[in-house]
Amino acid sequence: MQEKENNDGIVFKPIFKVVLLIFTSFIIFGALAIIFYGPRQTQVDITEIDPELLENGVHVRTGLIEADGLQTVITNCTTCHSSKLIIQNRMGEEQWNATIRWMQKTQGLWPLGENQKVIVDYLTKNYPVLEKGRRPPLTDIDWYPLEGK
Ligand code: HEC
């Protein structure tokens, strides 16, 4: 007796079709959800630093701390002068913006556009004004008279 051949190739049972449909829609909607609601690139600075140029969280050539915006700072701020000038200056947002304006007016620094915020954020976060430059004053001192006076 000869077995009857199935000429349809793969037979999709109706249930299988439904599963396939659900599966495909999951992938499509999943992809759309990631595109529309996924993590957004908020930084203008999308270039990543070559890990080989870093050592212990510090960019070896410039000595700048590795953090968001590092590449933007390197590109815009280390062409005219050493990064030491940046590192030794600790300022707040206002002062950094004023320093940048001063360099733009008098030293030929180019307009930074959106990168200015990236740079100032980097600087204020990684090189903040040091609150405690000196030993805080002593409190709770138990004074006593010196003997022999
Ligand atoms: C077009 C050249 C140029 C670029 C680019 C540049 N600077 Fe300067 N900057 C200068 C010059 C010139 C000085 C004065 C140097 C001196 O006094 O020896 C200076 C001085 C400074 C000082 C010291 C200011 C002070 O009050 O003593 C800081 C801090 C500084 N720059 C930070 C930056 C930062 C941050 C960037 C990136 C946004 C940057 N610079 C980009 C030219 C530039």
TrEMBL record:
Gene3D superfamilies: Cytochrome c-like domain
Segments passing through the bilayer: 15-37
Keyword match Iron: no
Source taxon at top rank: Bacteria
InterPro entries: Cyt_c-like_dom_sf
Keywords tagged on the record: Membrane, Transmembrane, Transmembrane helix
GO function term, MF aspect, one: electron transfer activity
Keyword Membrane: yes
SUPFAM superfamilies attached to this UniProt entry: Cytochrome c
Protein name: Sulfite dehydrogenase (Cytochrome) subunit SorB
